[in-house]
Design a protein that fits this description.
D-Maltodextrin-Binding Protein, domain 2; five-stranded mixed sheet; alpha/beta
Length: 300
């Protein structure tokens, strides 16, 4: 466990990718006499999620929201600042091989669908969309996964099949017809692969009109030990995040995908927590208000 000084400046190991919302933070345009953020995480932030929750390898930084929900369920020492680091709509993140014939979302029951890890946040959002908008229950699908979960304590449900390491990639399995669909932030680069959800951009706009929230992917998390020992440092990190966000370009479509503040985050956090519970990702219902209120000092 890291021991933090009781007062004075601190240097914090930070996991943060080069996203547009907080680019000013990494560029050094937002400075602090109290906090130095050591951006020592990998270029792809998701590569640090497992060591964050298993080994406490960082003091703060970007963390997948579903990984955070699982971490709280298994009593890992992390708290959340009310800041969305990455948000996007996921309707274009599931594809199928059109060379094998037409496929609709409603047709997925009884099919095999590949996703990197069952607990991957993108997969949780897509399964929630399939269940609530297309009537396809997650446990009616056979899930083919390559990676283990970030949390060592978590066990996949019975509908999950894990492929052997070093074998064929999930992308190639889709192209070769060994799975019926694929979920990922990037679909395979093959001309036969098409989005499963027709006109995903229009579907995402309709979803937003209904829910009025972006789909949260990554949030900013802080070590519970740091939050307890140095609330002044946590408050300064929040100030830096707010200052950096103010320097970010405004969204062209008016939809803020990386909102700040508890009120702005609550709807999206509540929805992904609901999906995670329904999909057996977390063992009990998350208290969203408690999660948002947990960080000391209170933030607005």
């Amino acid at each position: 466990m890291t021991v933090y000084p009781k007062s004075g400046p601190v240097r914090l190991k930070t996991n943060l990718a080069d996203g547009p919302a907080f680019r000013a933070l990494k560029a050094g345009d937002v400075k602090s006499d109290l906090v130095t953020l050591d951006f020592c995480g990998p270029k792809a932030a998701h590569e640090a999620f497992k060591p964050m929750v298993r080994d406490n390898a960082f003091d703060c930084g970007e963390l997948a929201v579903v990984t955070f929900l699982q971490a709280k369920a298994y009593d890992k020492p992390w708290v959340m600042l009310p800041a969305v680091v990455v948000g996007r709509f996921q309707h274009n993140c599931i594809g199928y091989n059109s060379a094998r014939g037409a496929l609709r979302p409603e047709d997925l029951a009884g099919k095999r669908v590949a996703v990197r890890s069952y607990s991957q946040t993108t997969g949780v959002w897509v399964r929630g969309i399939l269940q609530h908008d297309y009537g396809v229950a997650p446990d009616s699908i056979a899930w083919v996964c390559a990676d283990d979960p970030h949390l060592a304590e978590y066990r996949d449900p019975p509908s999950v099949e894990r492929i052997k390491p070093g074998g064929k990639s999930l992308d190639q399995m889709l192209i070769d017809g060994e799975v019926d669909a694929f979920i990922g932030a990037q679909l395979p680069k093959d001309p036969s692969v098409r989005p499963l959800i027709p006109d995903p951009e229009a579907a995402a706009k309709a979803w937003y009109a209904k829910h009025r929230t972006p789909q949260i992917n990554h949030i900013f998390a802080v070590s519970s030990t740091l939050a307890a020992a140095r609330p002044d440092v946590v408050k300064e990190i929040w100030r830096m995040l707010v200052a950096a966000k103010r320097l970010a370009p405004a969204p062209a479509d008016g939809i803020d995908m990386t909102p700040l503040g508890a009120d702005a985050m609550r709807p999206g956090l509540a929805l992904i927590a609901q999906y995670a519970l329904e999909q057996q990702i977390i063992p009990r219902r998350a208290d969203v208000d408690a999660l948002l209120a947990e960080t000391a000092p209170p933030l607005t």
